[in-house]
Amino acid sequence: MMTKAVPNPKRPTRLEPLRLIEQQLEFIAKSDIDTIPKGMRGIYVLYRTADSGIPKRPHRHVVYVGMSASGIRGRLRSHRKHKDELWDTCSIFVVWPNVREEEIRELEGILRHISRYDPDAQQLNAQGAYRKLAIARKVETKEAYRKEVEFVEHDLADQQ
Length: 160
Prior knowledge:
alpha+beta, 4 strands
């Protein structure tokens, strides 16, 4: 009889590297963007910070999701110059050297598509929906499964 290996809680599980993202740095103050190395390609997010009422845990409202295929630092400098009052913090997600520009654009498009109804993110995101996503096949759901889920949700609502 074979026994299943039980993970040791004291030993961290080794995580495999991400396929697209090589490096990341979150919540960089606008005043510190000049410390980002030149030539980094990838996705960046601009945030506006708001008080959450919890010390050292502010709310961060996504104001903009963008990409750069040549240099994130330059794009952030441009946003600091032209849209300074709308954001105060950013995060960067740097892609591996073998990731193509089209793949970076796809990542950006999907993230913008997800946030297109967020009123905070709409201040700078003019594109809205990611049109290329419309050509992706829709997930087909089975009618029997849908009825089963609706039945379970209905039963749970009745129990409360």
